[in-house]
Amino acid sequence: MNKLQDWPEPIVRVQSLSDSGMPIIPERYVKPPLERPSINSTISSDVNIPIVDLAGLYGDDHALRATILDQISVACREWGFFQVINHGVSPKLMDRARELWRQFFNLPMEVKQAYANTPKTYEGYGSRLGVKKGAILDWSDYYFLHYLPLALKDYKKWPTIPSDCREVLDEYGKQLVELCGRLMKVLSINLGLGEEQLQNALGGENVGVCLRVNFYPKCPQPDLTLGLSSHSDPGGMTLLLPDNHVPGLQVRKDKNWITVKPAPHAFIVNIGDQIQVLSNATYKSVEHRVIVNSSKDRVSLAFFYNPKSDIPIEPMKELVTPDRPPLYQAMTFDEYRLFIRTRGPSGKSQVESLKSPR
Length: 358
Ligand code: OGA
Ligand code: NI
Hints:
Number of strands: 15
Largest sheet: 8 strands, mixed
Radius of gyration: 20 Å
Distance between the termini: 33 Å
Order of helices and strands: HEEHEHHEEHHEEEEEEHEEEEHH
Structural class: alpha+beta
Keywords: Dioxygenase, Iron, Jasmonic acid signaling pathway, Metal-binding, Oxidoreductase, Plant defense, Vitamin C
Bound molecules: N-oxalylglycine, nickel (II) ion
Domain Fe2OG dioxygenase: 206-307
CATH class: Mainly Beta
CATH architecture: Sandwich
Family: Belongs to the iron/ascorbate-dependent oxidoreductase family.
Oligomer: single chain
Helix content: 25-40%
Protein name: Fe2OG dioxygenase domain-containing protein
CATH superfamily: B-lactam Antibiotic, Isopenicillin N Synthase, Chain
GO molecular function, one term: dioxygenase activity
Shape: globular
């Protein structure tokens, strides 16, 4: 029954493995050959995901605004991923948020262990996603916490060190929720809907919002493993604040893996499975993964903007036509997220499994 109550095996902190200086990684982290980073990886190409400058989105220049909307429309259709700059979130706040998490992960292990999480809610300090016994694991640790709904926000599950943690994280959450709201309007208009409709389909004010901070320790054999296995994000939309020094995020473009080159103080925006479903696959969530390296740790903050968790999510009726029947069956996000929490990251198999029988 209670298969989400506890981990199937004792938790090993990847950071401890890395710090031990062992020259080879344990077998549990060795990926099958076809999943290893060298396969179809285009690490040093000039290709990058689109960068969209949001300055002008609210100005009087209607032509400029139309251009920005169009750039986002193309990015959503062709990539499912883009970066935004001049997005309105304070660059100082972004730097401080990333820095405080670096400080947190650099605390002594005993301090961090006080926040150890369980699969029941995933909140706190964790080292695996999924509870499949014997699973091959990813080379990363993380910290997970809720912002919204307020009923799930629990300061007891947030770190208290560094001392400005709560204050910085609260402000970070507030500014990112605003940015997500603005982007929802853009996506809604781009889908040919009224400006509020997409947000309303996610539950209006009652969206769910959470943060997953990823810590990818340096790895003695980066060619054999991944920091985070290929997956699409299960929720609505994600705003990722990447490491400012160390690349690692790769996005699937057709058969290739493109390494994202972050612009200074940009957020990386990506479409999650729930917007794929709501948009009846006009927009698709795109697979991505993280590679690690042997010389530097990497930190990233993934901010997830999700539907209210107990409402059915299905293709919006405006986007269903005789030519384009509903591609997915309705499911609540509570049900949907159990899948990834049980099985761990597994490409796009989850959203594929929602396809309507025909
Ligand atoms: C995630 C994710 C990418 C990164 O947390 O879902 O895709 O660069 N993170 O850490
Ligand atoms: Ni992701």
